[in-house]
């Protein structure tokens, strides 16, 4: 076992992990942060997307020990402490960017990663950025719309689907 | 996945020492190795992470204009920082998806030599040099067939040195589900000739298409490739495409790459 310490959503946490413990398992099983989902476990779907030192990664394809000393952000840290949703989460709600919600934590974290570097993306840029995030319900349209809306752009002209 | 010991050294020397033991394996970004270990197709007793080694990260331009890229540099960093070699930066920006690019490394990709990977075509077409902890290997000697390279046991790619061509372009015909190259062609035009490297297509992994190189050296235009064809013998045939289809795509993608160069 290796002892690891990292910051998760601003709080310092520690734990003992095996070499093979994946970051997503440490988050879900040890820290009980079950908002980060495991869809495929084969690095295809992006449901497990979190931020490590400010960039999006698939937490099913990174060992927890690799995140020792890192600054990790998960879906649980996105809303304000009083529960007020952040702009991206609110836009997903407003624009019906989710149906079953399974992919949503990963979508929100991927969107946050995009908007940090590209605050006013085009529709094509949003779609391109979401290549690694699979949704089996929505057909993506309302997810793209929500992200464009969260970036402060007018989406009233986007076709409703 | 079977369990293993995990080490994260901060220098190349410590990494090489840690890799000297039996059944130890290097871990780059893990974007290939972790899925492989989950399937129990690899079961190292020890993983030595290369991601904490500062001297193996980053892109720098040398006095002669060539670029040296650390072996543990992520695809995202190459995409952002290899602007002096635009075709290489564009190739890196097209690998997988953003999260894969934030973890996956150039050294891991080149060491793995997946027949459908993008980077090997850039390394071979550029005539790049693979730098390891013990020696320098030219691209022509490095790739030795699907998943096979000149690397010895425990040898790690610490960096790669790319001469910057006068013009270059990479065209990838994506396998739509995996986003790997179904066929990818990298064309690089230098003062003394043209190099064309093809990935995704051959059962022997990345290879140079020498007929196209000769034709393009005389006349660097898509038309120079008219009438040239790659034989489908030895091409990959799977549910995504037949050997004949891949052989045909090589011609198409090479023309597109040349057109995008000029
Ligand atoms: C969803 C998805 C899509 C992808 N799409 C593409 C694509 O379009 N094009 C593409 O080219 N690739 C693609 N990849 C693969 C990706 O580029 C990997 O990052 C890369 O192939 C391996 O790099 P890594 O750093 O993750 O290596 P790892 O997975 O850590 O290691 C791979 C192998 O290389 C060895 N190794 C690692 N680093 C070194 C080193 N410095 N020296 C010597 N040996 C080393 C390891 O021991 C292991 O055998 C994709 C991967 C995923 C998950
Ligand atoms: S669970 Fe990690 S990518 Fe699907
Ligand atoms: S809302 Fe169901 S998977 Fe995306």
Describe the fold and architecture.
Chain A is of the alpha+beta class. Chain A has five helices and five strands; from the N terminus they run ββαβββαααα. Chain A has a five-stranded mixed beta sheet, with helices on both faces. Chain B is α+β, with helices and mostly antiparallel strands. Chain B has two domains: 5-162, Uridine Diphospho-n-acetylenolpyruvylglucosamine Reductase, domain 3, CATH 3.30.465; 167-261, 2-Layer Sandwich (Enolase-like, domain 1), CATH 3.30.390. Chain B has ten helices and twelve strands. Chain B has helices spanning 12-19, 33-38, 75-81, 86-93, 98-103, 106-112, 119-126, 139-142, 210-218, 243-261, and strands at residues 5-7, 24-27, 46-49, 59-61, 67-70, 129-132, 136-138, 157-162, 167-174, 181-190, 193-199, 207-208. In chain B, the strands form three sheets. A five-stranded antiparallel beta sheet of chain B has the order 4-5-8-6-7. The mean pLDDT of chain B is 97. The chains are: A alpha+beta (161), B alpha+beta (262). Chains A and B meet through strand 4 and helix 3 of A and helix 2 and helix 5 of B. Bound molecules: flavin-adenine dinucleotide and FE2/S2 (inorganic) cluster (2 copies). Residues 38-41, 43-48, 58, 60 of chain A line the site of one FE2/S2 (inorganic) cluster.
């Amino acid at each position: 076992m290796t002892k690891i310490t990292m910051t998760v959503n601003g709080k310092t946490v520690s734990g003992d992990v095996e070499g093979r413990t994946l970051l997503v398992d440490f988050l879900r099983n040890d820290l009980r942060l079950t908002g980060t989902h495991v869809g495929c476990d084969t690095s295809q779907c992006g449901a497990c997307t979190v931020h490590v030192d400010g960039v999006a990664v698939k937490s099913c394809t990174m060992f927890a020990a690799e995140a020792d000393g890192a600054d990790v952000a998960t879906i649980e840290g996105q809303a304000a402490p009083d529960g007020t949703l952040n702009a991206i989460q609110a836009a997903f709600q407003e624009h019906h960017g989710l149906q079953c919600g399974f992919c949503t934590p990963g979508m929100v974290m991927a969107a946050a990663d995009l908007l940090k570097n590209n605050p006013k993306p085009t529709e094509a840029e949003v779609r391109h950025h979401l290549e690694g995030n699979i949704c089996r319900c929505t057909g993506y349209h309302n997810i793209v719309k929500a992200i464009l809306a969260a970036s402060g752009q007018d989406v009233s002209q986007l076709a409703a689907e | 996945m079977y369990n293993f010991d995990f080490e994260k050294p901060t220098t190349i020397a410590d990494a090489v020492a840690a890799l000297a033991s039996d059944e130890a394996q290097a871990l780059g970004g893990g974007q290939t190795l972790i899925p492989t270990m989950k399937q129990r197709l690899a079961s190292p007793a020890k993983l030595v992470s290369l991601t904490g080694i500062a001297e193996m990260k980053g892109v720098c331009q040398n006095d002669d204009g060539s670029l040296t890229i650390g072996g543990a540099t992520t695809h995202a960093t190459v995409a952002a920082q290899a602007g002096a070699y635009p075709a290489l930066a564009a190739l890196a920006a097209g690998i997988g998806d953003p999260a894969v690019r934030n973890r996956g490394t150039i050294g891991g990709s080149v060491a793995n030599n997946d027949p459908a990977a993008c980077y090997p075509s850039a390394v071979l077409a550029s005539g790049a040099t693979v730098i390891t902890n013990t020696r320098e290997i030219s691209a022509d000697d490095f790739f030795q067939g699907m998943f096979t390279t000149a690397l010895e046991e425990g040898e790690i790619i610490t960096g790669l040195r790319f001469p910057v061509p006068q013009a270059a372009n990479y065209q990838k015909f994506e396998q739509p589900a995996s986003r790997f190259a179904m066929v990818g062609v990298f064309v690089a035009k230098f003062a003394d000739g043209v190099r064309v490297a093809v990935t995704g297509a051959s059962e022997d992994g990345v290879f140079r298409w020498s007929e196209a190189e000769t034709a393009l050296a005389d006349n660097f235009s898509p038309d120079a490739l008219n009438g040239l064809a790659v034989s489908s013998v030895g091409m990959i045939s799977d549910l995504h495409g037949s050997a004949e289809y891949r052989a045909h795509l090589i011609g198409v993608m090479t023309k597109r790459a040349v057109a995008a160069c000029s």
